[in-house]
Design a protein that fits this description.
The protein is mostly beta strands. The chain contains 1 helix and 10 strands, in the order H-E-E-E-E-E-E-E-E-E-E. The strands form 2 sheets. It has a 6-stranded antiparallel sheet with strand order 3-2-6-7-8-9, with no helix packed on it. Strands 4-5-1-10 form a 4-stranded mixed sheet, with no helix packed on it. The longest helix is centred in the N-terminal third of the chain and has 13 residues. It is globular and about 50 Å long.
Amino acid sequence: MKKLLPFFILTAVLLSSGCDRMIWDFITPNVSILVQNADGDNLLDPAFESNILDDEIYAEYNGDIYPLANHTRESYPRWEGLRAGIDEWNRSSPITLLFGEFSPSRGDNGYHGETFTVYWGDGTKDEITFDLYVTGTNRKPDVKKRLWINGKQVSKNSLTAKIVR
């Protein structure tokens, strides 16, 4: 029994000390915008004859320009900026405008009021602002997601919205 006592003490110490700090691995979501016309047609669907995929669409974010790239590609192993495709976290979604792969646990603060602008190639633009951050405790984190388009809040718990053009 004396030989087992150090094992029990070590086990108790490891179990009690390992419970104080948990490490969370969060999904890195995109901002996802469904772009439709007034009739509800998806303007990013290559099968739709009047799609806008060949327009000179780009996003400006933190002083950098991201042209629309890799039309309808279904997987994104790295940051690619602005793209039209199916959101990798929601394979049943329609083709949307995707921007990001933002981590809600970036630094200590996440993203608050983060803004990028989408230029549509016809002289118009939309300003997209989002919040993405974590609140709560290590044991029960809560990921906050909010989205605004041109200053109007369009989502209170999602980074997905719709623009009618």
